[in-house]
Specification:
This protein is mainly beta and about 425 residues long. The chain has a domain of about 40 residues. Helix content is about 10%, strand content about 60%. The chain is built from 2 helices and 21 strands. The protein has a 16-stranded antiparallel beta barrel with strand order 1-3-4-7-8-9-10-11-12-13-14-17-18-19-20-21. A two-stranded antiparallel sheet has the order 5-6. Strands 15-16 form a two-stranded antiparallel ribbon. A hairpin with a 2-residue loop joins strand 1 and strand 2. The longest helix has about 40 residues. The protein starts with a helix and ends with a strand.
Amino acid sequence: MRGNFKNMKTIKAPGIKYLKFTIFTSYLLLLTSNLITFVQAEVKLTPVIDVSLLGGKYFLDAEAASFQARGDAFISPVVKLSDSHELIPVFSGYYSGTQDVQELAGGGVLTRERRGMDFSLKYVYTRDFDKYKPRVSYSKALIRETKDETWGNGLFDYATFSLGFEAEQERPHGTFTESYDYYSVKYPNYSTLLSQSATVIDTTTFNELSQNAGADTMDNVNHRLAFGYTWFPEPLVLTAGYDFIYRSYGDQALVTQPAAGSAYFKSDKRTDLVQNAGFKITQNMKPLLLSARAHVAYLSSNQNSYDSSRTKYIPDYYDYFELGVAPAVTFGLKNGAQFGFSVAYKRLYYLGRFKQDISGNYSPDKIKQDTWLTSLSARYPLMSRFFARASYNYQLSSSNMRYEANYRYNYRANTYLFGVEWEF
């Protein structure tokens, strides 16, 4: 009997293992089935795609450039995990073959071509009438100033990495938003000429000048706090916002006023404080959409400048105060056609930068600059998801500054563009 009992155990063991395997497999299949059902029921993918290809001409001070292209792409496969959870990845890229004047390194720089890409990921958690949105992004921009400059070697090429968080509270009287962003900007090809001059000038002079001078002087780190409020007094939508940016340049030493036996640079580093406040009003009067924006900005920097060719020391070189307004109107038809017109004006007051005549001689007055941008746009449906697009921009910049060896202050620019857009 003992032998038979042993044989019976031997016979039963595979049955128990099979039963366990069957139970585990059934549980796994049930779990997979429930997961698939949950995914099918809860997860929704909504792709948003917008691609445009335009061509046109650019005129700077009546001098025409050759026919050039511009392309833009925006892709965002929005993933709704549930009613409370959402992922929003965004990829965008652009190419601009038309010349334009960009605000770079503290002044207007004429660029010939630009291209860039940006990737960001945002997570949105919704709880009742509140939303919480952590986000991360990376972008890279390549800029060519001359025709013979190769891509990737531009002096002002830069990359930006950002981490941030936004909170939103919807209330009966309006919506509040608060956000914090950290972002770093790096210029891989930009370094001071002084940092590369050890073999050009004598050792004693180089040591005196280069003390604390730094090399990667454009790289900066930023902390941004922003607050906004939107309310809806029918038929208007009103938005007010304020943001504060603390910007530090870890390798840019402060310029000091030259004196006998003193160095040109302190060990202290440059920091900027930037404040922006804006207000926008919108009214939908179908088929017209009317809007107007106003803003004020103030930048305070501890950095100074010294013009060695004219032995002129300029404290608070980067400080400025700016005012701007921008009304706009859009006319939309039922077939999807749109026509728009806008005007943007801003006045920039440099608080420390002295104006110069065409030869570079200084006057006691400070620089003022007025910029006007007039835009006309049209979009007309051609077929399903395809549109014809055309735009015209006229920009006028005028200033009491006449010396433009470093930056552009006075210019007229016209841009004509037309092409097609695909929207999904």
